[in-house]
Amino acid sequence: MHHIDDEQRRIRLGRRHLLARSLRASSVVKVADAVVALHATDAATVYLSTCARLSEPNVETVERALYEDVSLVRLLSMRNTLFAMSTDAARFVDASHARAVAAKERRTFLKHLREDGKGLDEHWLAEVERGTLTVLDERGRATGSELSAVVPSLRTKITVFPGTRQETVQGVASRVIRLLAADGRIRRDRPRGAWTSSQFRWTATTPWPAADPAEARTEVARRWLFSYGPATEADLKWWTGWGVRETRQALAAVTAEEVSLDSGASGWVVPGDLAPEPPPEPWAALLPGLDPSAMGWTDRAFHLRADHRGALFDRAGNIGPTVWWNGTIVGGWAQRADGELVWRLLSDVGREAVRHIEQEAAGLSAWVGGARVTPRFRTPLERELTA
Questions:
Q1: What are phi and psi of 212, to 5 degrees?
Q2: What is the pLDDT of residue 193?
Q3: Other beta carbons less than 10 A from residue 120's beta carbon
Q4: Is residue 83 a contact partner of residue 205, using CB atoms and an 8 Å limit?
Q5: Is pTM, for the whole model, over 0.85?
Q6: 8 A C-beta contact, residue 177 and residue 144
Q7: Which distant-in-sequence residues (6+ apart) come within 8 Å of 178 by Cβ?
Q8: pLDDT confidence of 272, banded at 50, 70, 90?
Q9: Mean pLDDT, range 296-312, rounded to an integer
Q10: Helix and strand tally (H, E) in the chain?
Q11: Residue 42 and residue 56: Cα distance in Å, rounded?
Q12: How many CB atoms lie within 10 A of CB 362?
């Protein structure tokens, strides 16, 4: 069996994720496709992850892709998480993930409506959705609060998990908007605040055309293996959120080739992707929390020391802002309330690495400008650096 060692995996990461300075991209679409999809739960992550891979990073380029030419779209998809991806990738992710996620979201919400006991059902929900879409057609775009002010049913409150410890009263507006977005009938438009804000306006859009889910899963697996391979079956299963059967079917449909890894596990690559790649020039990167390069595998041992995890992850397993050197996570960074960007090394990487990291930190500070970035998922090191 062909063997691919950890050093080669780190080389591939730097090259294929466009992190080496000479390999950075000129367009947002190229960045998104290089990592398949960008985590978008935290609004700032899309900008920080993209600009870390752009040859000329700036907020306006990412905003144009998201809100003007809409070449970058957000979908509730893998692991029921919000991702941003190119429209080319989105047509496959919609069929492989988003349709199933949307159906599950709808079933769950209808169950909560029935349990509330007010007689609210799918007919009531359909009427509320029609009213919401009508307002968006008339206005062009609106926030959730603006929609609730015009559509009275959006101000309805229901009791979820009645009779249990989790019982709580909840407004339906955010749930209805989430369903419409999951179905692809509305999308996020420019936020009310700066690019770091998550208070989005919404605008009507057209759902993606139907496609065969199995064929879509094959294409998603192929793209992911090229960007993240060699990777294990468990890595692909975790990243996609598929079951074992779906994961193995996708690997078989791709005709992925099996390789051995330094960990002793079997990895998989796309057919013919066995040749070693030359290392790029020495590179450093400051990546945000939930960045794809840090969240791409369930087994991160080839680029993250086990004794660094406690400082860099929150209790739910979300990784915070990280400092990288030649394919390895070596520290973390944060932005203080006064705008100062600070970082700390967890490994001794030498003077050359420090010089490159300082250069990346200066570049990040320059394009972020006066914006303040606080990760949604805060980690011990990030909290300590900002204290």
A1: -70, 120
A2: 87
A3: 19
A4: no
A5: yes
A6: yes
A7: 76, 105
A8: very high
A9: 96
A10: 16, 15
A11: 22
A12: 10
Residue 12: how many other CB atoms lie within 10 Å: 21
Instruction: Report, as an integer, the average pLDDT of 131-156.
Output: 96
Q: In whole angstroms, give the CA distance from residue 381 to residue 346.
A: 10
* N- to C-terminal Cα separation, the chain: 50
Distance between CA atoms of residues 102 and 160, nearest Å: 19
Joined together, the tokens standing for residue 65 give 């892709």
Q: How far apart are CA 47 and CA 195, in angstroms?
A: 8
Tokens standing for residue 182: 């999951």
Between the alpha carbon of residue 165 and those of residues 131, 157, 159, 337, the distances in Å are: 34, 18, 12, 37
Which tokens is 150 given? 């015009």
- Mean pLDDT (whole number) for 255-283: 97
* DSSP per-residue letters across 293-359: HHHS-S--TTTS-GGGHHHHB-TTS-B--EEEETTEEEEEEEE-TTS-EEEEESS---HHHHHHHHH
Bridge partners of 319, per DSSP, are: 313
CB 28 within 8 A of CB 50: yes
Burial-class residue 169 by CB neighbours within 10 Å (0-12, 13-18, 19+): exposed
Q: Which two tokens stand for residue 305?
A: 């020391």
Q: Hunting for tokens 């959120």 — which residue is that?
A: 241
Sheet-wide strand order for 266-269? 3-4, 257-261, 266-269
Say if CB 254 and CB 225 are below 8 A apart. Answer: yes
